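Memo to structure team: turn this sequence into structure tokens by end of day. - J.P.
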Amino acid sequence: MIVVLLGPPGAGKGTQARRIEDKMGLVQLSTGDMLRAAVAARTEVGRAAQAIMEAGELVPDATMVRMISERIEAPDCAKGCLLDGFPRTYAQAAALDRMLTDKGLVLDRVIEMKVDDAILVERITGRFACATCGEGYHGRYRRPKVEGVCDNCGGAAFDRRADDTAETVAARLAAYNTETAPLLVYYAEAGTLASVDAMAPIAEVGEAIDALLDRAG
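Reply from structure team:
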């Protein structure tokens, strides 16, 4: 089974992807992680991508699709994979479909994680994490049980991402909404698109996604 998760930063894609990976054996493929791994391994694709990035340019869609093409042939992807962060544009979606068709594969399900932009801004800008173990917290929704002390490791230092500001998050959401609108039409016409309310509690979002994947399988 091949699945794509669509959703803006902070929608919970990573959380759900890890859960699906554990439950169904689908390998989570994050294009960012894959790029870093390919560069570190000095693969042919990695060397090409590194040269492009060092020149300050964006990695072309063809290179990204080639990287995904090679990755899904690995033995650990025998049960399928879950794409997180790709495709982001119509051109990438079309290129991904062509690659899968050439391999005799199909995209089984595209799940849109729908969010309320205003609430999502609040969710993201309130995030912080333990500087020692990375345990995540939120200024409103999940504070440490003992103020200033990490529940997980007892650390007393916390960090916030520098780009988790209201202005930056709003800009990222606007870019996502502009780029993704054509994708929703594309996948709706293909009959693979389904949506879940990503503002619901994590467990409820997971149950909704599981139901969609059960029907797709």
